[in-house]
Structure formats: structure tokens, C-alpha cells
Specification:
Layout (H helix, E strand, L loop, with lengths): L1 E5 L3 E7 L5 E2 L1 H16 L5 E6 L7 E2 L1 H6 L4 H19 L4 E5 L2 E3 L1 H8 L2 E5 L3 E3 L11 H4 L5 H10 L3 E2 H7 L4 E3 L4 H13 L3 H13 L5 H18 L1 H10 L3
Parallel strand pairs: 2-4, 3-5, 4-6, 6-8, 7-9, 8-11
Antiparallel strand pairs: 1-2, 9-10
């Protein structure tokens, strides 16, 4: 349980926070550390980011946040998310996200910063942040869907399917759930068969030509989450969510 790192030419980083992979603040930092460690290993040529359980990631652990007094838990979660998303983006080798079930909130941050996404045929992607009293990861959602759809998803909290993203070209393959890891490892192995120095320079060069600074953009979004929390709107929305309203 927690974050697992399996080293090798194709390293594997696994999220495992039962029952729904709602990741606590420390878990986001552990994920960032695992990704940094994988990328720092000279043997690593690609990384598969996957998850155990019912879904890829349900975002932050709202129950942890509501149990804590003051703003420390919120700040820790937001810093943890920023660190984990940045670790995916900055990993010096390509990161392939293997997404199954639900990919929500912080899960979109991870998948949106990945170099490639392979998904199971039951996978859905969504940003329920407005219903949770927060904002963030629209930066990463905009890397997966067209701009107007991104806005619709933020305002309405509606999810989209892996098949829809496949039509946009932002999900490489949609496969049965039983074959998801195998499909992710297949494309990772294809990348790992290339010259490792050239692949690392390719990753660096592609990050360098990105039109949006994803780290700065996400931190800008997070500022509005802080504002909503200070206003009390964030806390009220989280309580409604936990009460099932």
C-alpha cells in the first residue's frame, strides 16, 4: 500500500491507496520522490505510472483535509500535488500513464503531464473541483481536451471517456482493463529500445518548446483554491461532498 517503485529499464511507479486512490498529502510527496528516483537511475529508459484498485486516482484525500484544523492539510496537499505533477513533467525519460477506472482531479494532473496515456476501456477523466470547493488541474486537462471542452468540464464537472480522448489523439490506446499494464509496457519497451541519451535529450527539448509553463500555470490556479478556502466556500463544498449532498 502507498507508492511502489519497481526499477528497471522500464521502471514502474504504482499508486495504491485503497479504496479509491484518494491520495493523502504525504502520498503525493512519496509519488514525487519515486518518480525523481526512477528518472535519476541511469538504467531507466521509460517509466510506467499505474495504479492498483478501483481507479487510477480520485484526487486528494478530502477526508484527511477535513479532519485537520486550520489550513495546514490543504497547504500540504496542494504542495504535494504540485510536486508530483512536476515530477511527472520533469522526469528525464518519458512517462506513460496507464489509466483505468476513474481519473479525477489530481489524477488528471498526473495524466495530463505524462508524455503518453494508455487507458482501459472503462476509464473516465474528470475535474470535479468546482463541486469540491477547489480549482486546479485545468492546466493539465487542457493538454488532454480542446479548450472549450475543458471549460465545459470545469464548470459542469462532467467527465469524458477514454474513447473521447482517443479521438482527440491524447490517449494513445484504449484496451480492455486486463491488458492495460501490458499495453503500457509494450509502448514503454518500444521507447526503451531507442538510444537512451537521445530519448533523454528529446524529453528535455520537448519540454523546452511547450507553449505553457505548466508548473507556473498550475500554481496560479491553486491561488484561487487558497482564496476559496479563506472565504469559507471551499470548506462548505467539501462538507457537502462528504455528507453526500
Amino acid at each position: 500500500m502507498g507508492v511502489q517503485l519497481h526499477r528497471g529499464a522500464v521502471a514502474e511507479v504504482i499508486l495504491d491507496f485503497p479504496p479509491v486512490n484518494a491520495v493523502p498529502a504525504a502520498g503525493w510527496h512519496a509519488l514525487a520522490d519515486a518518480l525523481v528516483a526512477a528518472g535519476a537511475d541511469p538504467r531507466t529508459r521509460a517509466v510506467v505510472l499505474a495504479a492498483e484498485g478501483r481507479g487510477f486516482c480520485a484526487g486528494v484525500d478530502i477526508k484527511e483535509m477535513q479532519r485537520a484544523e486550520g489550513h495546514d492539510a490543504l497547504l500540504a496537499a496542494n504542495r504535494g500535488c504540485a510536486a508530483a505533477f512536476a515530477a511527472v513533467y520533469d522526469c528525464p525519460v518519458p512517462v506513460i500513464a496507464a489509466v483505468h477506472g476513474f481519473c479525477l482531479g489530481g489524477g488528471v494532473g498526473l495524466a495530463g503531464n505524462a508524455d503518453l496515456v494508455v487507458a482501459s476501456d472503462d476509464a473516465t477523466f474528470g475535474l470535479p473541483e468546482v463541486d469540491r470547493g477547489a480549482l486546479g488541474a485545468a492546466t493539465h486537462l487542457s493538454r488532454l481536451v480542446p479548450h472549450q471542452l475543458m471549460r465545459t468540464m470545469v464548470y459542469t464537472c462532467r467527465p469524458v471517456s477514454a474513447w473521447q480522448l482517443h479521438r482527440f489523439g491524447t490517449v494513445l490506446e484504449v484496451v480492455p482493463a486486463a491488458g492495460l499494464r501490458r499495453a503500457a509496457h509494450r509502448v514503454a519497451a518500444e521507447i526503451a529500445g531507442k538510444d537512451p541519451l537521445i530519448i533523454r535529450r528529446a524529453k528535455e527539448s520537448l519540454n523546452g518548446i511547450d507553449p505553457v509553463d505548466v508548473k507556473r500555470s498550475y500554481r496560479f490556479e491553486q491561488g484561487f483554491t487558497f482564496e476559496l478556502n479563506l472565504d469559507g466556500a471551499g470548506d462548505r463544498a467539501r462538507e457537502r461532498f462528504l455528507e453526500g449532498r
